[in-house]
Amino acid sequence: MTDPSPPDYFSWILLYLTGAAALASGSLLKAVAMVILGMLLGLAGTDINSGVKRFMFDIPALEDGMNAASVLMGALGIGLWAKLPQSRYRTGFLALLLVGVIAIYWWQDYDNFFLVSTIVFGLAGYLWARLKCVSAPLYFGMVYSAAMEEQLRRMLLLSRGSFTPLLVHPLSATFLTLALIVLILAVLRKTRKTTIGGDEAQRNPGVPP
Question: Do 53 and 45 meet the contact criterion of CB atoms below 8 Å apart?
Answer without folding.
Answer: yes
